[in-house]
Write a structure and sequence with these properties.
This protein is an alpha/beta fold. The chain has helices at about 1-15, 20-40, 90-105, 110-120, 130-145, 205-215, 230-240, 250-255, 265-275, 280-295, 300-310, 320-325, 335-345, 350-370, 380-385; strands at about 55-65, 70-80, 155-170, 170-185, 190-200, 225, 245.
């Protein structure tokens, strides 16, 4: 147990400075107090019980200053006697224990025994293992409610990207893809729409993921932006009937791999002349000129470009104001970075449920940030989508 606590303390030092951890510490602290008071009173809120020994009498507010930041708490009051949570003092050890509870719930996929022992380190009493389990499961409930919420309205732009994390499967350590979907609606607002884990190259996986979004109400998708996953490309055509945009950034990285170090700057500058064009027609014309110029020295690169023209330049058929945001999956880079940072703290996830818990909580926090930020795209420019015959809304596909 000592080694476990030392390991969890190390996690605290690495990952306790984010808004997510501060929020989850506050959430856990509040639920622990409610559970502790319920045990002392002998009954739940509004519950009639012959074993009742006291009554609740509102709350008093207190701020809890931790190394993770200031956390507002509502401490329950009792009609007879007083209540003060034991975990508030001493501060340093309680912070470690509280954070350890949360981290252990994440890492172990809610290991009731371990969390129960850590809760006892807070000086709490009357909390059973079943109560601890329910307490931790509330985190899962919040995440699942968010990830399964109905999707309303039309979503012309959909970004999908994957990052890889390690997980134990049947006694082996394997890498699995964590897939994130972010979209912009016709009002120019961004939202995180979905999350899934699985083999990113498998078409059945991508197909099921997109159909799950459709079942929740996703519609009106005109452009899907992603890396060159063949399985996803086929699934987009089958399920969404939408245009597919190959991420321009990933394409450039792939293209530069065909040139040696001394030639890459020249190749990069030449290809970028394509993206400097003002119209789709000019961009396609320049693409073919550049491809022919590269063909003699870089035949493999030219062959790759022959097949990639329309999927890399798909964004040029959309409003000019949107192009800088829809030509790549950069909108997901920050999210993927946060996932990797947290995954590095965990190391190896015990199961895919633990991945969904941690990543889902991060996505919930990010979605809240999107809600208070200014529109990602202007309403006026979004209106151009319905006026442009090149980018009509697709018909709703069947969910067979």
């Amino acid at each position: 147990m000592t080694d476990d606590r030392m390991a969890l303390a190390e996690m605290l030092e690495k990952g306790s400075d984010g808004d997510l951890l501060r929020e989850m510490i506050g959430f856990m602290a509040q639920r622990l107090m409610e559970t502790d008071v319920q045990a002392r009173v002998g009954a739940g809120h509004g519950e009639r019980s012959e074993t009742r020994e006291n009554w609740r009498n509102g709350y008093r507010e207190r701020t809890w200053h931790t190394r993770a930041g200031t956390i507002p708490l509502k401490i329950p009051k009792l009609r007879s006697g007083s209540y003060f949570p034991g975990f508030l003092e001493p501060r340093r050890s309680s912070e470690k224990a509280m954070t350890a509870v949360i981290q252990e719930a994440y890492v172990q996929g809610i290991s009731t025994r371990s969390v129960d022992e850590l809760v006892k380190a807070l000086g709490m009493s009357g909390i059973s293992k079943s109560q601890v389990s329910r307490l931790c499961e509330e985190i899962d409930e919040r995440v699942e409610e968010f990830l399964n919420r109905p999707i309303e309205g039309d979503w012309p732009y959909l970004w999908i990207d994957a990052t890889y994390v390690k997980v134990r499967q049947s006694g082996r350590i394997v890498s699995v893809a964590t897939i994130i979907a972010v979209a912009v609606n016709t009002e120019g607002r961004r939202e995180v729409l979905g999350l899934a884990t699985g083999p990113s190259e498998a078409e059945p996986f991508w197909t099921e993921f997109l159909r799950s979004l459709m079942r929740r109400g996703l519609r009106g998708v005109k452009l899907v932006i992603s890396d060159a996953h063949e399985g996803l490309k086929a699934a987009v055509a089958k399920v969404l009937h939408a245009t597919w945009q190959r991420c321009r950034v990933h394409f450039l990285r792939n293209a530069l791999a065909y040139a040696n170090k001394g030639q890459r700057q020249m190749v990069f500058a030449l290809i970028n002349t394509i993206f400097a064009q003002e119209t789709a027609e000019a961009a396609h014309q320049q693409w073919r000129i550049v491809t022919d110029q590269l063909r003699e020295k870089f035949p493999k690169l030219a062959t790759m470009m022959d097949g990639a023209e329309h999927e890399v330049l798909a964004f040029m058929d959309f409003p000019k104001e949107h192009r800088v945001k829809i030509h790549s999956t950069n909108v997901l880079e920050r999210l993927n970075g946060e996932i990797k940072r947290r995954a590095d703290v965990v190391g190896i996830f015990p199961n895919e449920r633990a991945i969904r818990r941690l990543v889902g909580a991060l996505l919930l926090e990010q979605n809240d940030e999107y809600a208070i930020q200014k529109r990602y795209m202007g309403v006026e420019s979004m209106a151009q989508l319905s006026e442009n015959p090149m980018v009509r809304l697709p018909a709703a596909p069947a969910l067979a």
